[in-house]
C-alpha cells in the first residue's frame, strides 16, 4: 500500500478516482430518478466527437469534450421537450452520430488514428497529469456545488416535473443546468473509467444505495460513499493485479450491487410487511387527530 | 380593486389534446374563498380544464385569467397549489414523505435553501393531513390514500391561495377521504379557494359551494350541491344498476 502511494502517478490517479467517485453518483442520482439512466452513456458517445475535435484543432481534448458534450446534452434535453413521439429515435441519431463523428474526425487529424481515442474510450487513470488533475478537481467541485446546493430543486424537477413547473421554479433552466452538469461529469470521468463505462459509475452506485435506503438525501449520501469505495478499490486493484482500472471499477461496482441486494432483501421484506400492516388497515386512529375549529 | 378579481376565470376556452378538441367554449369562474367541484363523465374535459388552468395545456381560444391576470402574464405561482392525479408508478429513487412535501415549499423558497420558517410550514402541512408521524418513511411504502394525503400536503406546504386538485379522492380509502375533507375544511375556513375534479362528492359534499357539470367540453349545468345532496352525500349507497338516479343528475355516469 505504502509502496503504491510512493508513486506520484498513483497519488494523482487515486485523487482523480476519489473526486470522480464523488461527482459521478451525485449527478447520476437525478438521471436515475428521472428514468434516464442511460443518458450518461449517450453523452459519452457525443463527447467522443469533442475529443477528436480537440486533436484536429490541436486544443485540449478534455475542454473540447466538455464543450461538445454540453451542447449534446442540451440537445438531448431539447429533444425531450419538443420531440414527444419520436424522441428515442432522435436520441439514437445523436448518440451514433457522436460516435461516428469522433471516429471520422480523429482520422482527419494530422497523425490521428483510432488509437488516440482508446485512452478516452476505456480511460487511462495512471496517465493523469498535474494539469489534468487540476481540471478534474475544479470541474468536479462545480458539479458538486450544483448537485448538492440545488438538491431540493433538482429533486423536485426530476420527481414530478409538472408539479415543479406549477410551483414557478425555472424548470427549463434547471433541466439545462442538470444536462450540462451531467456532460461535465462524463468528460471529467472519462479519464478514470473511459467514455464507454462512464454511465456505469453514474448509475450503479445509485442503484446499489437505493436497495437499502428510504429517502433521497440518504440515497445521495450512500451512493457517493459507494462511488468512492469502488473507484478507490478499483484503482488499487489495477495497480496490484495489473488489470485495467476502468473495468476493475465497474466490475467491483456490480459486485457491490449484488452483495447489497442480497443483504437488503430480508430488510426490504421486513419493511414491506410493516408497511402493509400500517397502510392496509388505514390506521387512522394512531396517526391522525381530526382538526376541529 | 385587486381583491374583487376572481381567482380563476375561463371564458369561452377551447383546448385540444393532439388533434382532438376537448374543451369547446368553456366558461368557469372561481371566486375568492369559493369551493368549486368539476363533475362529468370520462372524457368530458374535467382534467383538461384543470391542466389548462395551471398552464400545462394551452388554451387555443377564449381567455384564461388567474387572480385577474392573463395566464401569459401571471407570475405569482406560489399562490397556486396543485395536486395532480395520483400516479401509481413508484419513483426511481426512494424519497421520504418529508422530502416530497418539502418540494412543495419551493413555490416560496424558489432557488434558496429552506429556512426554519419553511421547515415549519412543511411540518404544519404534514400535520394537517395526519402524515407527520410518517415523515421519515418512503412514499413508496404508503397506501393509495396516504400517498394522496402526501400530495395534498405538498401543495399546502407553499401556503397557496387556491388549491387545484385533480381527482383527489380516486383510489382513496374512506378513512383518508375524511382526513382530506377535514384538511380542506380547515383551509377553506382560512379563505383558500378550491377547484377540484371529482367523480363523486363523497365526504367533501358539505364543503362545496358550486358543482359544475361538464359534458363534451362545455358546462352542462351548474348546481348548488344541496340539490345534489342525496346523491352526493351517499355515493356508496347509490345502486349502480339504477339508471334513473344517474339520468336525474348526470353525476355518476
UniProtKB/TrEMBL annotation, chain A:
<dbReference type="Pfam" id="PF00950">
    <property type="entry name" value="ABC-3"/>
</dbReference>
<keyword id="KW-0472">Membrane</keyword>
<dbReference type="InterPro" id="IPR037294">
    <property type="entry name" value="ABC_BtuC-like"/>
</dbReference>
<feature type="transmembrane region" description="Helical">
    <location>
        <begin position="220"/>
        <end position="241"/>
    </location>
</feature>
<keyword id="KW-0812">Transmembrane</keyword>
<feature type="transmembrane region" description="Helical">
    <location>
        <begin position="12"/>
        <end position="31"/>
    </location>
</feature>
<feature type="transmembrane region" description="Helical">
    <location>
        <begin position="163"/>
        <end position="184"/>
    </location>
</feature>
<feature type="transmembrane region" description="Helical">
    <location>
        <begin position="89"/>
        <end position="109"/>
    </location>
</feature>
<comment type="similarity">
    <text>Belongs to the ABC-3 integral membrane protein family.</text>
</comment>
<keyword id="KW-0813">Transport</keyword>
<keyword id="KW-1133">Transmembrane helix</keyword>
<feature type="transmembrane region" description="Helical">
    <location>
        <begin position="133"/>
        <end position="151"/>
    </location>
</feature>
<dbReference type="InterPro" id="IPR001626">
    <property type="entry name" value="ABC_TroCD"/>
</dbReference>
<protein>
    <submittedName>
        <fullName>Metal ABC transporter permease</fullName>
    </submittedName>
</protein>
<feature type="transmembrane region" description="Helical">
    <location>
        <begin position="247"/>
        <end position="268"/>
    </location>
</feature>
<feature type="transmembrane region" description="Helical">
    <location>
        <begin position="190"/>
        <end position="208"/>
    </location>
</feature>
From TrEMBL, chain B:
<feature type="domain" description="ABC transporter">
    <location>
        <begin position="8"/>
        <end position="241"/>
    </location>
</feature>
<dbReference type="InterPro" id="IPR027417">
    <property type="entry name" value="P-loop_NTPase"/>
</dbReference>
<dbReference type="GO" id="GO:0005524">
    <property type="term" value="F:ATP binding"/>
</dbReference>
<feature type="region of interest" description="Disordered">
    <location>
        <begin position="232"/>
        <end position="253"/>
    </location>
</feature>
<dbReference type="InterPro" id="IPR003439">
    <property type="entry name" value="ABC_transporter-like_ATP-bd"/>
</dbReference>
<protein>
    <submittedName>
        <fullName>Metal ABC transporter ATP-binding protein</fullName>
    </submittedName>
</protein>
<keyword id="KW-0547">Nucleotide-binding</keyword>
<keyword id="KW-0813">Transport</keyword>
<dbReference type="InterPro" id="IPR003593">
    <property type="entry name" value="AAA+_ATPase"/>
</dbReference>
<dbReference type="InterPro" id="IPR050153">
    <property type="entry name" value="Metal_Ion_Import_ABC"/>
</dbReference>
<dbReference type="Pfam" id="PF00005">
    <property type="entry name" value="ABC_tran"/>
</dbReference>
<feature type="compositionally biased region" description="Basic and acidic residues">
    <location>
        <begin position="232"/>
        <end position="245"/>
    </location>
</feature>
<keyword id="KW-0067">ATP-binding</keyword>
Amino acid at each position: 500500500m505504502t509502496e503504491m502511494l510512493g508513486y506520484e502517478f498513483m497519488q494523482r490517479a487515486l485523487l482523480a478516482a476519489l473526486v470522480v467517485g464523488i461527482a459521478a453518483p451525485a449527478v447520476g442520482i437525478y438521471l436515475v430518478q428521472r428514468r434516464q439512466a442511460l443518458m450518461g452513456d449517450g453523452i459519452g458517445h457525443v463527447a467522443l466527437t469533442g475529443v477528436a475535435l480537440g486533436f484536429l484543432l490541436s486544443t485540449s481534448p478534455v475542454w473540447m469534450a466538455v464543450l461538445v458534450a454540453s451542447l449534446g446534452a442540451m440537445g438531448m434535453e431539447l429533444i425531450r421537450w419538443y420531440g414527444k413521439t419520436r424522441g428515442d429515435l432522435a436520441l439514437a441519431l445523436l448518440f451514433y452520430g457522436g460516435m461516428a463523428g469522433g471516429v471520422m474526425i480523429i482520422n482527419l487529424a494530422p497523425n490521428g488514428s483510432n488509437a488516440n481515442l482508446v485512452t478516452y474510450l476505456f480511460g487511462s487513470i495512471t496517465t493523469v497529469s498535474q494539469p489534468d488533475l487540476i481540471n478534474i478537481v475544479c470541474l468536479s467541485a462545480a458539479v458538486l456545488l450544483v448537485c448538492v446546493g440545488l438538491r431540493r430543486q433538482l429533486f423536485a424537477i426530476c420527481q414530478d416535473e409538472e408539479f415543479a413547473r406549477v410551483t414557478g421554479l425555472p424548470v427549463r433552466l434547471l433541466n439545462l443546468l442538470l444536462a450540462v452538469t451531467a456532460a461535465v461529469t462524463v468528460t471529467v470521468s472519462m479519464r478514470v473509467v473511459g467514455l464507454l463505462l462512464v454511465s456505469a459509475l453514474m448509475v450503479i452506485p445509485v442503484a446499489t444505495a437505493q436497495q437499502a435506503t428510504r429517502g433521497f438525501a440518504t440515497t445521495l449520501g450512500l451512493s457517493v460513499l459507494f462511488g468512492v469505495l469502488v473507484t478507490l478499490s478499483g484503482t488499487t486493484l489495477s495497480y496490484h493485479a495489473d488489470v485495467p482500472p476502468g473495468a476493475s471499477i465497474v466490475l467491483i461496482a456490480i459486485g457491490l450491487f449484488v452483495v447489497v441486494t442480497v443483504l437488503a432483501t430480508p430488510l426490504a421484506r421486513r419493511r414491506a410487511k410493516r408497511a402493509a400492516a400500517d397502510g392496509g388497515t388505514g390506521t387512522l386512529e394512531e396517526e391522525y387527530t381530526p382538526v376541529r375549529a | 380593486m385587486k381583491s374583487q378579481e376572481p381567482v380563476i376565470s375561463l371564458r369561452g376556452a377551447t383546448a385540444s389534446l393532439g388533434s382532438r378538441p376537448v374543451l369547446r367554449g368553456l366558461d368557469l369562474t372561481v371566486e375568492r374563498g369559493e369551493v368549486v367541484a368539476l363533475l362529468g363523465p370520462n372524457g368530458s374535459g374535467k382534467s383538461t380544464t384543470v391542466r389548462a388552468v395551471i398552464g400545462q395545456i394551452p388554451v387555443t381560444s377564449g381567455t384564461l385569467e388567474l387572480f385577474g391576470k392573463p395566464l401569459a402574464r401571471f407570475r405569482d405561482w406560489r399562490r397556486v397549489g396543485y395536486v395532480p392525479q395520483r400516479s401509481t408508478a413508484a419513483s426511481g429513487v426512494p424519497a421520504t414523505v418529508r422530502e416530497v412535501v418539502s418540494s412543495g415549499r419551493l413555490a416560496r423558497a424558489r432557488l434558496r435553501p429552506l429556512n426554519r420558517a419553511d421547515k415549519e410550514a412543511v411540518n404544519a402541512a404534514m400535520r394537517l393531513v395526519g402524515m407527520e408521524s410518517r415523515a421519515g418513511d418512503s412514499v413508496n411504502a404508503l397506501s393509495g390514500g396516504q400517498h394522496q394525503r402526501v400530495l395534498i400536503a405538498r401543495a399546502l406546504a407553499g401556503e397557496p391561495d387556491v388549491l387545484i386538485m385533480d381527482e383527489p379522492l380516486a383510489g382513496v380509502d374512506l378513512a383518508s377521504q375524511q382526513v382530506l375533507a377535514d384538511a380542506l375544511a380547515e383551509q377553506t375556513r382560512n379563505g383558500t379557494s378550491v377547484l377540484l375534479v371529482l367523480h363523486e362528492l363523497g365526504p367533501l359534499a358539505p364543503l362545496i359551494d358550486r358543482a359544475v357539470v361538464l359534458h363534451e367540453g362545455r358546462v352542462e349545468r351548474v348546481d348548488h350541491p344541496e340539490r345534489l345532496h342525496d346523491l352526493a352525500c351517499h355515493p356508496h349507497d347509490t345502486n349502480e344498476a339504477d339508471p334513473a338516479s344517474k339520468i336525474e343528475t348526470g353525476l355518476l355516469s
